[in-house]
Amino acid sequence: VSPTAPSSSSESRAGGRGRLVLAEIAEQPVVAERLVTAAGSSDGELQRVARAVREAAPRMVLLTARGTSDHAALYAKYLVEVQLGLPAGLTSTSTLTVYGARPDLRGVLWVSVSQSGGSPDLVESTAAARRAGALTLAVTNNAASPLAQAAELHLDVLAGPELAVAATKSYTAQLLTLWLLVQAWRGASLQPAAALPELLATAVATDDVDAVAARYRFVDRLVLTGRGFSYPTAREAALKLMETSYLSAMAFSAADLMHGPLAMVDADRPVVVVVPEGPGGQALVPVLDALRDRGADVCAVAPGGLAPHATVRLALPSGMPEDLAPVVQIVPLQRLAAHMALARGLDPDSPRGLRKVTETR
Amino acid sequence: VSPTAPSSSSESRAGGRGRLVLAEIAEQPVVAERLVTAAGSSDGELQRVARAVREAAPRMVLLTARGTSDHAALYAKYLVEVQLGLPAGLTSTSTLTVYGARPDLRGVLWVSVSQSGGSPDLVESTAAARRAGALTLAVTNNAASPLAQAAELHLDVLAGPELAVAATKSYTAQLLTLWLLVQAWRGASLQPAAALPELLATAVATDDVDAVAARYRFVDRLVLTGRGFSYPTAREAALKLMETSYLSAMAFSAADLMHGPLAMVDADRPVVVVVPEGPGGQALVPVLDALRDRGADVCAVAPGGLAPHATVRLALPSGMPEDLAPVVQIVPLQRLAAHMALARGLDPDSPRGLRKVTETR
């Protein structure tokens, strides 16, 4: 698998704008192949970390992250709850850093996820968690980072330097790394991941993104939704659209959408629904019906055959296991965000007011 | 304390629209007084539940809820982490109901928060948590509800029948009930809550809401933010604005806002910042500076003296402990949501497409 060339007209029209983010989106098949290959080594980092975690036999998992990495952490929460049968929670960093809480974290696996490994609040809260008795694991794209140093264990997501402010390849690398960790931890096969490089290569080259970007050229408010494993995809896609096109892109789990925000949805506010094969996709059927009743303009990110009444589609391949599908699902949405920014004359490589490493305390 | 009459011009202009929600907002001082009085009884429900929880000595707390109640659960998460030193997490209901996960929940206190106690997914996941070994507590506004029956323990938030679709008095009643529970559990004084009925009576009667509602009459996109204890307030205010005025109201913790969404903020997208006295408010100072640098139109919900550069203000009383302030903070924002709906000719009592009890699975 090699990086796929930009496929569509708006990508070639852009005159250098979006060059970084489009190249990093296209790199994702190579990054996945790198991770799958490394995971196959029985004395590699993944297997060593999985052994250490298994021996510690944590009774729960706490995940901490910000921004894009927080969506990878949310994905890991579903994996831990569903596949390991352990309770899991996303931490509120401020309880440790702002309020100085000193909880008893013995028996807890504390997982900090960060592309750069540089945000001071993550470093500080991870160090505090370690002092409070947690087994700490950092998942970063930089083994030399302060966060990697602060934690007892480290997993490198092997995405290579990421230069665009909007994270793309580091996100799918985080998802895949966390999936591989959970499988190695519970002794499950890593084999399903072998198909990913090919599936990602297809996803970075499909030509249906342009039509959706064109349809939504003048949209400034958008709702995104998913359920279970596909909910982090909706959240991450919303963040990409906010960062690169300054849209009011609001993500809800489909169940939460029905508890209030549905009132906002009308024919002028498109809804992007991420529909996987499996129980999560089935749980979305009544939600798709409710959206249809409201006359919503629905964009389905789904394999063919699912969500048949959607107005427009971003096609996903069939046959992916639902727990692994998020690695591929986000790709057309990353591309949509970049294309929508380009269509608006914006440069998705350098959103106003943002830097690559955000320092919060 | 008795319910305060509607104070402002848009409330008296509305010709019946918003009658229910405005009456329920005005009832909040009475509800708080009812809860504080009941909590004073040493053989009351609160003390009995607190004793049962203390005896069980849970090693962690999992909270489950949807919509407005989810924001009360998020508030409780901060209380548990900061004041009890226990890890806490918000559950993803779908892992139990959609994916059939059967985690080991021995040693876990499972708290389900719901106004109606009627949503099937909460009932089902609470029953599953009980079978999985958790001590289960339902916090509802209906002691006869299926959720109250499904859990071993129950706390009634004593808000009385809530008729408006947009929850208001049940929210502050949930916050106060959860605060009282955590204090009784850890053996802390309940005395700070005695001031609430008076503070709430002031908050439902201040006249600064109209000016803000007028300023934002034609706004359709809004960002809300807070940090720590005030973050649930921002989330709940966003939901109220979405439900009643169909705004794209997006809430972020202030730390998350800096990791990407800040790019969206410009002079045309007002930012509501909830600034309490205490460490959470101090952590917002650099965020307020960043918003000022971007030329944002900032509405501060804050005691006088904090956030001095805000464009407009909704004043809060001084001297509230930060952990209890959210009970009062939300009131001017509930009123703002109702007034903005009225100013747009909408009826905040009956948002389109919503019913009072949402059934999700």
Structure, explained:
2 copies of one chain form a homodimer. With 361 residues, chain A is of the alpha/beta class. The first copy, chain A, is built from 16 helices and 10 strands. Chain A has helices spanning 9-13, 19-26, 28-39, 45-56, 68-84, 93-97, 120-131, 146-150, 169-186, 196-203, 209-215, 231-245, 254-258, 279-282, 285-293, 326-343, and strands at residues 60-64, 88-90, 108-114, 135-140, 153-156, 221-226, 248-253, 271-274, 298-303, 312-316. Chain A has a 5-stranded parallel β-sheet, sandwiched between helices. Chain A has a 5-stranded parallel β-sheet with strand order 7-6-8-9-10, sandwiched between helices. In chain A, helix 10 packs parallel to helix 16. The first copy, chain A, starts with 8 loop residues before the first helix and ends in an 18-residue tail after the last helix. The model of chain A is unreliable at 1-10 (pLDDT under 50). Chains A and B meet through helix 5, strand 2, helix 6, helix 12 and strand 7 of A and helix 5, strand 2, helix 6, helix 12 and strand 7 of B.
